[in-house]
Specification:
- By secondary structure, the protein is an alpha/beta fold.
- Helices cover 42% and strands 22% of the residues.
- Helix 10 packs across helix 18 (555-567), helix 11 (333-356) crosses helix 17 and helix 19 (578-587) runs parallel beside helix 20.
- 33% of the residues are buried.
Length: 673
């Protein structure tokens, strides 16, 4: 019987090659797979021998040449190769060479009738790790040699599998986009992955031996750190959101998970921290929360405006009536003047609140922003003062925007006044326009802005700048950093509301001592036709002798308005709601030239009232008034808010002038309702 020459037991590192094929090994499933290589096909005694030794689950393949053996090895994973060897057999040595060159393979036992020193030397040079001295072995010796070779091979494969798993885990940690840090039980850093270095700016050499305290931003409460250590030292996983500081001083926000690591005895030896940078996500969340908060305040402002406007109407109307009844030199005229001034200031505040809440009445036109700004710039020097240099840089091919020119003027005036206050010792104010295309990259950074074409209005000052703690609040109504009595805190809130009402977006960029830049994005209008700006009417009043129907649900407003109109020659019919107005109109037999009606009233609103009387009195004109916001007014019917509408509060003289304007117009108002 041939004797074993040597066993080639793999003891190498590296990935397993394709030489061993794609099939499953017998080591793992209980089926031992052998490959016999040689020209002698009489290997049946080996099967019988292995079966007698307890290896009943045995698969045996045969290859009569090196090429055939290599082909089979590509298809099947063998647990053992038994190869005939004759002195000087180059084919057997070439098989070992091919197996060695392609990575770790199954053990090989060579069977030879004779063995000498040159054979051992050739085997060593080929790559056999542990050749055994040849001797005549009994069948049990051959069985033990085969079993030993398979056992060593199985252990080696398990070691390689473990090493492969460790290499995968290492690569997973090294290539992870999350920040991974490992510390000992005392919190001393022992490892950080490349993502940690890329985000924080600290190299591994700088962090080794340090503690995570190098990242402290000072924005976390001490209680958080106490809770952290209590949790992880007790063996619990700790989760939190933490604000940390990079090496360059920048702040970043991370979702942190710290997990205790235990040894084989269950003792905590290390901690692994896995952090995910959520700075951008937190910034977008803050933007959304800020927008929602501003919307909520705007809704509140719009709701308050109606009742507030009615109260102001009563105050200003009776002050106006009292002023008309006093002689020019009467000592009480000064007091009444002060009442009127206070009511006008209160009315301005109401309008600013409505503007902030995006509920201000608009006269939308297609505007050339450059032309509007050039006209406004004629007034700005008087507002900002001679010690501030004003520069306007108009953009080319700007396109048009659909907006209210009065509101655009209001935006620029408020921003200029804000810049003036930021430059008490003088400075520079630059207004620029440009046509921009906002792409997906910009939208990702500003999630509430849809992509598209915009006209950009930029206002930059060289003033003191805005500190970070104030920057997120500057658009809130009544928020101001000025001394008490020096500002209402509604200027920038008004700007914000107007921009949002015109479907635009506003961003502010500022650093302390480096000035402030406001960027306003207004959607570019598709219609290139420019509507000329309507001239603002000059306030005055004219009396008349026509008959007017006054429908107003607020008694004090109705009474003061009726008294004033009667004093100016009009015949006034009163009604406290829409239903009563219909009854009054039907009962009155003479002509009614104009109906002045509140839009929102109990039982029947102004728009429905006008519709009810349109057929009965087709020649009667209508003037709508309301203290509600434009959206509320429009919900109550198709009302012309540009020519036949007055927004409360207004002076009685303004009402008289508007009544005269509507009465003298050619087209009847009811035809347009």
């Amino acid at each position: 019987m041939p004797e074993p020459l040597a066993s080639d037991v793999a003891n190498r590192s590296g990935d397993r090659s394709d030489m061993q094929g794609t099939g499953k090994s017998a080591v793992s499933n209980g089926q031992m797979q052998l490959l016999l290589v040689g020209k002698n096909k009489d290997f049946s005694h080996l099967r019988d021998l292995l079966s007698q030794s307890g290896n009943r689950h045995l698969g045996l393949d045969y290859a009569d040449s090196t090429e055939d053996a290599l082909a089979r090895l590509r298809q099947t994973n063998y647990d053992l190769l038994i190869c005939e060897y004759e002195s000087g057999d180059g084919a057997a040595l070439r098989l070992i060479h091919e197996l060695r060159r392609n990575g770790p393979a199954a053990p090989v036992i060579f069977l030879s009738d004779h063995m000498n020193e040159s054979a051992i030397d050739a085997a060593l040079k080929t790559g056999i790790d542990d050749p055994a001295q040849a001797s005549i072995l009994a069948e049990p010796s051959l069985t033990r040699a085969i079993r030993h070779a398979i056992d060593v091979y199985g252990k080696e494969r398990q070691r390689q599998k473990t090493e492969d798993t460790l290499r995968k885990l290492w690569r997973a940690v090294e290539q992870s986009a999350d920040l991974v840090m490992i510390t000992d039980r005392a919190g001393v850093i022992e490892y950080v992955n490349p993502a940690f270095e890329a985000l924080t700016g600290y190299s591994p050499g700088e962090l080794m031996g340090q503690t995570p305290r190098v990242l402290k931003s000072g924005q976390q409460a001490p209680e958080l750190y106490r809770e952290l250590w209590q949790s992880i030292l007790s063996g619990s996983v700790f989760r939190c959101t933490m604000v940390n500081q990079k090496k360059n001083g920048e702040i970043f926000v991370a979702e942190k998970v710290i997990t205790p690591l235990r040894d084989g005895e269950g003792l905590i030896t290390h901690f692994i921290s896995n952090d995910r940078d959520i700075t951008d996500r937190r910034r977008l969340e803050n933007q959304l929360q800020q927008a929602q908060k501003m919307d909520a305040i705007g809704l509140l402002a719009g709701g308050v405006a109606h009742d507030f406007n009615n109260l102001l109407m009563v105050i200003s109307s009776y002050a106006e009536l009292m002023l008309d009844s006093l002689a020019p030199q009467h000592p009480l005229r000064h007091n009444v003047d002060e009442i009127q001034k206070a009511s006008r200031r209160a009315a301005d505040l109401t309008r600013q609140l409505l503007a902030f809440g995006r509920k201000q009445m608009q006269t939308l036109q297609l505007l050339d922003l450059n032309s509007i700004i050039e006209e406004i710039n004629k007034m700005l020097p008087r507002l900002i003062g001679e010690d501030i240099e004003l520069e306007f840089v108009p953009g080319k091919k700007l396109g048009r925007v659909k907006a209210d020119p009065v509101q655009i003027e209001q935006v620029l005036m408020n921003l200029a006044a804000n810049a003036r206050d930021a430059m008490p010792k003088g400075g520079r104010l630059v207004i620029e326009t440009a046509s921009v295309q906002l792409d997906d990259a910009y939208v990702q950074a500003h999630s509430i802005v849809p992509p598209g074409e915009y006209v950009l209005l930029t206002v930059t000052d060289s003033g003191e700048g805005i500190s970070p703690e104030h920057l997120s609040h500057i658009f809130e109504p009544f928020y101001t950093t000025k001394e008490e009595g020096e500002g209402t805190g509604l200027g920038l809130a008004t700007v914000y509301g107007i921009v949002k009402q015109n479907s635009g977006f506003i961003w502010v960029y500022s650093e302390r001592g480096l000035g402030t830049t406001f960027k306003i994005y207004l959607p570019r209008a598709r219609d290139a036709r420019v509507v000329p700006q309507l001239a603002l009417p000059v306030e005055g009043y004219l009396g008349g002798c026509e008959t007017l129907l006054l429908a107003e649900d607020e008694p004090a407003v109705r009474q003061s308005t009726r008294e004033f109109l009667s004093l100016n020659g009009y015949i006034v019919l009163e009604a406290k709601n829409g239903a009563e107005a219909v009854a009054v109109a039907r009962e009155y037999k003479g002509p009614i030239h104009l109906m002045v009606t509140d839009v929102v009233m109990p039982q029947m609103g102004g728009a429905r009232l006008a519709g009810e009387l349109a057929l009965e009195r087709p020649d009667m004109k209508v003037l709508f008034v309301s203290g509600y916001a434009e959206t509320t007014v429009q919900r109550h019917g198709a009302i012309d808010v540009t020519t036949r509408f007055l927004q409360k509060p207004f002076s009685l003289r303004t009402l008289a002038r508007k009544i005269r304007e509507v009465l003298d117009a050619d087209a009847p108002a009811l035809a347009a309702v």
